[in-house]
Amino acid sequence: YEVTLSTGAATINLAALTGLTADESVVGTGLKVQAILFKNKSTNVNALTIAKGASNGFTGLGSSFSVTLPVGGWCLFSGADGGADIASGDRTIDVSGTGSQVLQFAVVMG
What we know:
The chain is mainly beta. Helix content is 0%, strand content 43%. It has no helices and ten strands. It has strands at 2-4, 9-13, 17-18, 25-26, 33-40, 48-52, 66-69, 74-78, 92-96, 102-109.
């Protein structure tokens, strides 16, 4: 997936991700994040911060999760069934940076 920031911010909703086509959606509700990879594209000009969402924040990576990625940097987290289920009150990840930077991510749920 790619998330393009708008005025330096974006939110990833793990309960409602876009599928392979515009007609498809991926619903993570009731599943656990088994692994998630975040990458700050090398074409961006500044660092990106990925954190538990301010509203309905996903706690599967920790109750105060936050990581800052330098340009071109990436990180991989393995949940291995140990994190929280994705739920209506536990589903968002916030991304902050500047302008319209792009975050790439991949997620495995099950």
